[in-house]
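Closing statement on the magnesium ion sub-project.
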Amino acid sequence: MIIAVDFDGTIVEHEYPKIGKTKLYAFETLKELQKQGHQLIMWTYRAGEYEKKAVEFCRENGLEFYAVNKNYPEEVFDETISRKIYADIYIDDRNVGGFLGWSKIWQIINENSEETFLQNEKEQSLKKRGFLSFLKK
Ligand SMILES: [Mg+2]
């Protein structure tokens, strides 16, 4: 999945333009999601120097984003494309319901994929059974 992640208030405590304290399990969770093959995009209000500082801070903590405020690294913004980046999931402290915390976020993303996996398994075995009953005829 493509996962868009906010910075201030999400990865670190909201202290913009300063960089706040890292939120509990933020980097652990994000690095683990990357290991699972998810593509992470930093999706932040920060621009210019402030954006660079956030990227640098994440890099120091071992996290390198696929792209920052872009769909892909080489994307050049102009009026022909929307400013909104495309993602399957957006992680932001301004979510409806507020920031969930990184353990909960991890749990939700992985529960969902487990459900999808089980659903696929079920469909597969139904297909197989369907095929077997077809053979018996
Ligand atoms: Mg925020």
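The chain is about 40% helix and 10% strand. With this model delivered, the sub-project is considered complete and its resources will be redirected to Aim 3.
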